[in-house]
Amino acid sequence: MDEQVVHNRYKRRIWLAVLMSLIMPGLGQVYCGRLKRGLVLNFLNILPLLIIIVLFSLSNSPALMQIVIALILAGGIVQLTAIVDSAFLAKRSVGYQLKDCNSPVVYALLVLIVTGGSIGSALYIRDQRLEAFRVPTASCYPTIVPNDRILANKNAYNRTDPKKGDLVVHINPLDRHMNYIKRIVAVAGDTVEIKNNRLYINDRELSWRKLPDSTLDNIRITLMGKPLEGEVFEETNGNSKYNIFLMNLPQNVTINNFEKITVPEHHCFVLGDNRNNSMDSRHFGPIPLATIKGRADYIYWPAMNWSHFGKIE
User: 66, 90, 78: which is closest to 16 by C-alpha?
Assistant: First the structure.
């Protein structure tokens, strides 16, 4: 066979190297004959996942979420590096001679071993440590905007109980196939009462501070095709401070008061931050702590504005 024909046959294809890097970072390097480089890049890509598992096993601090996001970004940078590097290797592969690693069997085994481990680790994180949710409603506006994507720390309450002010993802008591995101305003032993839209915990009215309308800049939304109008307040509940929204209601609509109750043991009382438009403990009562899936710590994909990205206050 003509030597030039052989070289053309074995020359590494750029599009194929890139495709293999997309399938598994480092696989494009193996395709181009750089087995060690490919394994190193693949290890660097899965290393953030391993670090995340270790960190969540050692701590439940909200500060971990910043590290998690940084590690996820680092993994993305490694994958991008692997793609670009494999393209350059393929471009320079004139006169390439096949190596032992250039076998479909080797490619398949690498993908099965590495991908299987990565999927297992990802499922472990999702089930035990960290889970992503999309919030479709405005019940926690202005803290959460409809279609925000959040990260819930499922390890947050392994060593401590939920506390007032925490924003949590919990199972809907009325439909266990549905998750809700609400604010804890009272815990076991507290009394809860709502009079004239004011919240009373242990017979003390929580203090409010009206915030300027500019607080809603960049996150104004519509509800049923109409702009959502109302006022924003900062509510203080013990050591916690958070924003709540009181939407304007038609003149013929009033907010019902909520008669005083005592939160039972192993339960908590939750409300939506959008107080006049939320299905919460006023409708289904205090929720068992066992139904809480995790503490909502971070917005990792804001629906409207990137100024909304980051730690949830």
Answer: 90
Task: Quote the pLDDT of residue 3.
Answer: 47
Residues 220-239: tens digit of each pLDDT: 998 888 888 999 999 999 99
The kind and range of the H/E element at 103 are: none
**β strands within the chain, DSSP E:** 130-135, 148-153, 167-172, 175-187, 191-195, 198-201, 204-205, 207-210, 222-223, 226-227, 230-237, 240-247, 258-262, 267-271, 287-288, 292-301, 310-311
Tell me the C-alpha distance between 232 and 210, whole Å.
Answer: 6
Crossing angle of helices 104-124 and 35-58, rounded to 10°: 10
Amino acid at 164: K
DSSP 274: B
Q: Could you report the per-residue pLDDT of 113-165, keeping only the tens digit for each? A: 776 656 655 555 555 567 889 999 999 999 999 999 998 888 888 888 999 99
Judged by DSSP in three states, 275 sits in coil
> What is the C-alpha end-to-end distance of the chain, expressed in Å?
69
> The whole model's pTM is what?
0.70
Angle 183-191-203 from CA coordinates, rounded to 5°: 105
